Amino acid sequence: MAEKTFPHELTEIDHDEMVTKKESNPHETITVSDVKGKRHFSAYMVISVVIVLFGSLSYSFSAGVIGTTIGQPSFSKYMGLDNNPNASAILGATASLFYVGGVFGSIFSNVVSDRWGRKASIYTGCIMVLCSGALCAGSVNIAMFIVFRFVAGFGGFMLSMVVPVWILEVAPAEVRGAFAQGHAGVLSLGYLLANYVGVGFYLNLPLTTVNAWRGPQAISCLPPILCLAGLWYIPESPRYLFMKERDSEARGILFKIHKSPGDDFIYSEIEEFQIRKQIELDRMLPSSWLYMIKKPSNRKRMWMTIFIGFGILSNGNIVLSTYCTIIMKSLGFDATKQLLIQAGIFAATISGPFIAILYVEKFRRPTLVATGLTLDLIFLLIFVALFASFVNGTNRAAQITCVALVYMFEVTFNLFIEGPLAYWATEFYPTNLRAKGATIQTVTFACTATLWGQSAPSGITNIGWKFFLCFIAISVVVIIALYFYFPDTQGKTLEEVALLFGDDDLVVVRQSDIQLDSHHRIIAKQQNGEEIVEDVVIKKDA
Q: C-alpha distances in angstroms, 56 versus 100, 114, 410, 413?
């Protein structure tokens, strides 16, 4: 089908506005489907996303650095853990308090995001990660270290919650998942850098050095510094601005981030109309926690969000990635190999989320996640069987196979699951509730990570392979539920996702029911059957 166009030229009148001269059939109209296939985002938007992703890097480097820190002999020696009978419990607290801080940070991020904006939440999270990294590096005892790991989790989870929300709210619907996938990719990059920095300090400093563990903690301050340096450049979420009735500012940002060379603004005009009309309704609706609990469709969103967070993170990924050094020690590997294997996991998985950008918008979200979980379940079953049979290094081939299975597990997680885990559930919510939905998701993640993070060191030490059986049982249930019962948000505008939850009366207009005529007038048929005709003015600065 030939693409429809309106022959015209854009003529500048003054600094603020442009008008369009048209020579086309006044009765001809264009819909979004007529401009599909074009790029609907600007270089400015891409650069802004890259800057925001330093917030994701701040979180993942801070979260990942603990993996090699607890494996550093210098850390155990300095903190008096090498001969401490309670070392496993202390290490569990060291890792899990990061996630406890994340629970409070996620809740606080919701307050900041809804009241002062998505950018304000990113600023706050970066400052907290920066300060906590410096103070962890300067810790003089284990108590001080644990306290500031809590602070690191507080700030880190603020970023983990708000960065995907910001990306979802600025990206066009057809590439929303691909852009949000960048968040998952940078998370993997942060874990990779954190682990190799830890290995580098271990291998290149004398074993007698008691402060080798401090270097990686200090380097964790760099990503938030870079993010803070660039935040002035990025725009606020236009959907947040519409919620705050700053329509002119929101419209200008939307046209600026969703244009491309030679763009005639057709897509942006239709998109802006749908977002503005939907948020005019959303502003009138309650946005309290009580409203979320009382309304059946919102309860469904909440339970699905909790199920996704707990179910996916209970497949064993947290334990295998965080406590790989302890697992490898149980398999008979020495300290150097433990650290190299742990760091190698993140080197093997770094490309996964970036590769997924190529196909994440081509498959249903439930299909993608269920496929990854099924493959991981197979790898985990084989791993547990070998772990149970050849623990303590009695069989070299089994040792190597166990390492390979852990790598395959983590690669699969990054190829299929890491990205959707960050944004799928957040897509369920309307703009007035999206920050709260992201908070529920992030709190669920933090609580689940705390559960497994606190129990894993003692569990692996005391019951070994049996500890992994709970992950196998949970995964079976989760795979079936996600594939058959969970909604697919792929390719749908955020304003239309409510239709998947039965909220037809809360959707003002579908994007497919919006047309643009040759005079740049919007002609839209609303869900209630009424028709709207509205002139659209394009701002130059957009």
A: 19, 20, 19, 18
